[in-house]
TrEMBL record:
Residues 445-466 have a biased composition (Polar residues). This is CxC5 like cysteine cluster associated with KDZ domain-containing protein. Residues 413-468 are annotated as: Disordered. Residues 421-430 have a biased composition (Low complexity).
Length: 647
């Protein structure tokens, strides 16, 4: 028997009315419920009362179905045990009792209160916190569904700091108020919105669904509401319990930011005011900046799959490493100016702030005339016709009408018209429709002018839509670990590839540079290096990966054959004639990475970059776990080797 059980039995013996009435399990339920509502019992000063306050007493009497006298006696006997008592897996019946009775008594299924009762700010002298504010909220959990809770905050009148369950806000009522979390640890429950908390375990489920199944926030919401929010007891609270897409994204990004700060032992602080969707912009930008180049956790990764030992012709043993990079068609909205990497101010903008003046110029190629009010083109007739025609083409009715005409269907049946016998007839095509049947539909006038304008606008080119980046470039170790990612805005040009590789392997870490870098366009890259006398990769072999070399490169290109034929590098061929490295690692990673296109295509650039880097980091963890499982000895290259020391 445990020490706690022995203690409870001794106290029951000391209180005969309890011993004669209560079962041991009923005492456990009393302790569990009392533990849950402990903050309400001790109040804002945290002092344990001699007599149980009336509201908690009524609640306990209701949910335990015990008389007020027995509740009072239980408090006398067991109050000092309640604070420390907490079952690791409390019975769901306890949560259901809070769903039914908690809102009536303004008591939540979990205590969400500030962890302090005195002000922490220097100069306040530890003044007691006052002005409690109680907010009705809900807690989204992994295994317990949605729970009704009440979140409490306290205030320091001296320094105007308000203390919440997971953070405090300095100058809480001011325009420049900031939130500071209490520590670098991820909170037990994450405060996402004013009236919503979430369990970190549920956030991990969200990100696991994203990284493994490429699940959208909409799919995650549907699955949770259908399968995990499964209590048969509805909450009596007034708040809606259904998860929604926006909350999934807010929870995902906040949890990821908290984890990032926790890994670096830094305390998160963010703006307290402003729109919810922009509250994390500052820290997202900081993390995105750190991730560029060498920021991925697995950047210095190596293992038996991407690093090999071979014996040279001189009899000595050498180490060689390899990686492969490639572009994948994942694109984000961007400034329409070619190669511009500045973010858009809004999701509907065509230009970044720097190029916003172009919004006042006609969008037709080669025309810089000012636009007229209400239009995106100048007054030139052909330019205006192009804009009007484009607007028509964007309307669903125009598109559907054109599809009918392309199918040879020109006569539209009217609702209620006699369609004749139901026998099978020849399909209506251009060859079997009589001239009298070719009457235009009622909306013909609104769309037919396109054919008249086609000739006048055929030579006019331009686009009034948003721009898009070209692709994402990934560098992958031959074991499948992705060590860097970058956005190519205009094209996957050779100069952009050079910039990407220089960022991935900066000169201050010469030991990080692989012995071989596979790339499907290495022949053009090598020519570029030779022509521009660039020596960054003089000691690196630049073969084309095997598949592309066999299928995409000419056998008559002597430069390609001499410098980029993988068979030329004898170290890449094993004793049994097979290739030592998996040069298709990037293609395999691209197949996984490319499936995020539908998720990220409308994301703001800050979230877009953060999300993709986070997915890569989580993917790498899975890959490394598998490398450990299969005995491939994954580890990090030591700093002295990265900085150029000998092996």
């Amino acid at each position: 028997m445990s020490f706690l059980a022995t203690d409870i039995l001794q106290r029951l013996i000391s209180h005969p009315p309890l011993a004669q009435t209560l079962k041991f399990t009923e005492v456990q339920r009393f302790l569990e419920f009392t533990h849950r509502i402990w903050p309400e019992i001790v109040g804002k000063r945290g002092i344990v009362p001699i007599a149980l306050p009336s509201q908690p007493a009524v609640f306990l009497s209701t949910v335990l179905q015990l008389s007020p006298a027995l509740i009072t006696l239980c408090w006398t006997a067991f109050s000092d045990l309640a604070l420390a008592f907490h079952e690791s897996e409390p019975p769901l019946s306890v949560d259901d009792a809070f769903r039914i009775h908690g809102p009536t008594h303004h008591l939540g299924a979990e205590p969400l209160v500030p962890p302090v009762h005195k002000c922490l700010q220097n100069g306040c002298g530890g003044k007691m916190l006052t002005h409690p504010v109680i907010t009705e909220a809900r807690l989204y959990t992994l295994l317990r569904g949605v729970l009704p809770i009440y979140s409490q905050s306290l205030y320091c009148r001296s320094c105007h700091t308000r203390y919440y369950p997971t953070y405090f806000a300095c100058e809480a009522d001011g325009a420049n108020a900031r939130r500071y979390y209490y520590s670098s640890d991820i909170p037990t429950f994450i405060h996402v919105t004013e009236s919503s908390f979430i369990e970190p375990a549920l956030c991990k489920l969200f990100e696991t669904q994203m990284v493994t199944a490429h699940a959208s926030a909409e799919s995650i919401t549907y699955i949770y509401n259908l399968a995990l929010n499964s209590s048969t007891i509805p909450n009596a609270a007034r708040l809606q319990n259904q998860l929604n897409d926006e909350f999934v994204w807010d929870a995902f990004f906040l949890h990821a930011v908290l984890r990032d700060h926790s890994s670096r032992r830094e305390v998160l602080n963010i703006p307290h005011g402003g729109p919810q969707r922009h509250r994390l912009d500052e820290v997202l930008a900081q993390r995105n900046y750190r991730m560029f180049g060498t920021g991925q956790e697995m950047w210095a990764h190596t293992c038996n799959k991407c690093m090999k030992i071979y014996q040279g012709q001189d009899g000595n043993w050498y180490q060689m490493t390899a990686g492969v990079h490639d572009g994948v068609a994942v694109r984000n909205i961007s400034c329409r100016v070619h190669e511009c990497s500045e973010p858009l101010p809004t999701q509907k903008s065509r230009f970044c702030l720097y190029h916003s003046y172009l919004d006042q110029e006609c969008y037709i190629n080669g025309c810089a005339n000012p636009v007229e009010s209400g239009f995106s083109t100048c007054r030139q007739e052909s330019h205006r016709a192009h804009e009007l025609q484009t607007q028509k083409k964007n309307k669903a009715m125009f598109q559907l009408h054109n599809r009918l005409q392309s199918a040879g269907i020109y006569q539209l049946p009217r609702a209620g018209a006699d369609s004749g016998p139901t026998t099978t007839t020849a399909p209506t095509t251009a060859s079997n429709v009589s001239p009298s049947d070719n009457a235009p539909p009622p909306t013909e006038e609104t769309v037919s002018n396109g054919s008249d304008n086609a000739a006048s606008t055929s030579k006019v080119k331009g686009s009034n839509s948003r721009g898009h980046s070209h692709n994402e470039q990934l560098f992958v170790r031959c074991c499948g670990v992705i060590i860097n990612r970058a956005t190519m805005f205009g094209s996957e040009g050779i100069s952009g590839v050079l910039t990407f590789l220089r960022a991935t392997f900066p000169q201050k870490y010469p030991g990080a540079l692989p012995s071989y870098i596979f790339y499907d366009n290495n022949c053009q890259f090598a020519k570029y290096l030779h022509a521009n006398k660039i020596h960054d990769f003089d000691k690196v072999g630049l073969p084309v990966d095997v598949w592309h070399f066999e299928c995409k490169h000419s056998a008559t290109d002597l430069f390609c054959q001499l410098h980029c034929n993988p068979y030329r590098f004898r170290e890449l061929i094993g004793e049994n004639g097979s290739w030592v490295f998996n040069s298709s690692a990037a293609e395999q990673s691209n197949a996984w990475f490319g499936k995020f296109q539908n998720i990220v295509r409308e994301m703001p650039s800050l979230r877009y970059n953060f999300f993709l880097d986070e997915m890569i980091a989580l993917h790498n963890q899975k890959v490394v776990e598998e490398l450990h499982r299969t005995g491939q000895n994954p580890h990090f290259i030591p700093d002295e080797i990265l900085e150029g020391g000998s092996v």
